[in-house]
Structures are given as C-alpha cells and as structure tokens.
Fold this sequence. Notes:
295 residues, alpha/beta, Rossmann fold, two-stranded antiparallel sheet, 14 helices, 6 strands, 52% helix
Amino acid sequence: RTRCLFCARLFSSAEDVFSHCKTEHQFNVCDVIKMHGLDFYGYIKLINFVRLKKPTTAYLSSLSSPLPWEGEEYLKPELEDDLLLQFDIDDLCEPADVLPSNGLNDTMMLLEQLKHAEHRARLAEAALARAQDDLQKMKQFAQDFVMNADVRSSSSSSAIADLHEDEDGVYFSSYGHYGIHEEMLKDKVRTESYRDFIYQNPHIFKDKVVLDVGCGTGILSMFAAKAGAKKVIGVDQSEIIYQAMDIIRLNKLENIITLVKGRIEEVDLPSEKVDVIISEWMVRGMNILFKTVIN
Length: 295
C-alpha cells in the first residue's frame, strides 16, 4: 500500500492513487508530465518532490521552467517502497483518443515508441555500468582497508579518492541500500576509528564469538576477524549482504565469518550465545541500545 500525494489516504496500487488525486485533488499527473515533457527520471523527481515539499496542486499547475524538482536530490526516494516509483507511467499516460489507423500514423507511433524505448535502454545501460563500477570500487576499498592492518599509519587508501558521488545520483537513489554503505566507506575518520579500536584492543575479540548487527558490507565483521575472533556472525536484512559475501571471500575470511540474511529479531543464529556484539553505532546503535530491537 502507498500513500496519496496530497493526503493521508492509503491505496493498494499506483493507478488508484492517481485516480484519487485526479478526482479529489484536481491533480492529473499525466497532464504535468506532458506539459513539461518529463522523462522517466523527471517523473521520479516529481513524485519525490511532491512527497517531500508537499506543494499545493495550484502551485504545481502554475510552474514553468526551471522546475523546482530538477535537482539530483529528488532522485532519492522520500517514501520507502513507494509504489508510485515502481510504476510505468507510460501505461497511464497513453492517449485515450487516437487518430484513425492508417499506415502513416502507425509508422509514426512505432517510431516514437522505439525512440522512447531506446532512450530508456541507454539510461538503464549507463546506470548499470555505473553500478557495476561503483560496486567494484566498494569491494576493492573494503579489501584494501581490511588488509591494511598497520593502524599506526595515517595514510589513506587511494580508493577513497576514487569513490566519488555518482554525477546524476541514479545509482545510489535507485539502489538506496548501497547509499549508507558508500557513505561509511568514504568516511575515512569514522571507518579508521572503528578499525583502530578493534585492532588496538585484540583482547576483546581474540577467540571470541562476535555478532555484527546490521553488518552491511561486512567491514566491522572483517575487522573483528582480523583481530582474532574465533567466529563472527554478520546479520543484515538488506540485499547488500550478498556484496558482503563477495568481499569476505576476497579477503579469505569465509571460514571465520558467517553471514545471515534477515532481521536480527527473526533469524536463527548459528551460535546460541555470543561474547561480543558490534554494530555501526551512528546508524543502528541507538536502535539496539535504546529501542531494544534485539530483546
């Protein structure tokens, strides 16, 4: 279910949301798309802009170029699992009244459809290429960081400089579950602080069973393993855990680290008890300590 763009009502499909917006709020998303010639990403930005800024329908109807949602920040989903962002708007905005069929009209229509399909295919291919490139950089940086056990060195990996923000934000907005991990890997001070504490206090981890709650890319799990942990269990619900598996294999730590996909309160851990619990505190620590999510 997803929420209306202008009120708190919930609907089970994007079509129902748009129908409600049209009848109850006098907002026709197709009219806005056609008026401003929005492509797929323009539509995504429009939806996120409306959810974030909550403009009136009168304001939206009065807009002209430059549009207020042209910034790349509006590619980031404002509402988790928003059905409107998963909807093919072309299905809704096809012209209701078409000219009588003839060879010329059919040919022109097919050419337009082909042009649109080719454009979307190019965008998808470019986004995929950027995603693959960024994932490879993330894996390489994680491996370099873990393998650099000399905590006295203040030198940073050159991979940090290579991990830059995607220019149009498509990749990290489309794959939101990577965004927070990218930020962690790019934050040299924070990540090195975690590493230094774990490596400089091996007595806490040596021969211990460690639980990494919300392990993400597995950075903390690998630090703990390098510090001498007997067994490390990393748990994460997001799809990033599959990338973590690759990173752990690259570092040849799969015999020490076991990754479990699922919610920490629902999964069956391979060990009944653990000696140490670690977590990326700035993101999840408050939930663990104060909201008692693992009670």
